[in-house]
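Hi R.,

Here's the chain you asked about this morning:
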Amino acid sequence: MTTQVGIEFSGCSVQNYSTMAPAPEAASSVSRSIEDEIAQLHERLAVELHRYALSIARVHQIACDAVQGAFLRYFVERRYGREIGDPRVWLYQAIRNELSERIPTRPAAPDTPRKKSKKKAATAKNPPTATARSRNPVHRSSPAWDILCN
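And the predicted structure, written out as tokens:
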């Protein structure tokens, strides 16, 4: 037996998402309460979770897929009897796990030795850089210092 689940928020939607259901005799009452629980969670947390996923993924569709995947995982876990203490925390962790699976990581940069900078000696073509005295408009040895301070 399969169950159809539809989720929509922030422009993301999934229609006819199928999951395998447990035995038909247990499915009726348990299924309805789990679906209600997930509907309430979705209504309360979907936008917040999407914002979190988008801050990590930076791509709208990847964020939508991660949030859907997290709710789907939650649905499956609850459907098979797992009690989840804090659904909000569980969903955040599930989104982070989903994104770690979906976002490719960059390979580490190869170790390259740093190039040593070669300072050139001061010549006519390469004048020395400015010193504190040349940058300071009023230096103690200048005539302006005597006028200002005496």
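The first strand starts at residue 2 and ends at 9.

Let me know if you need anything else.
M.
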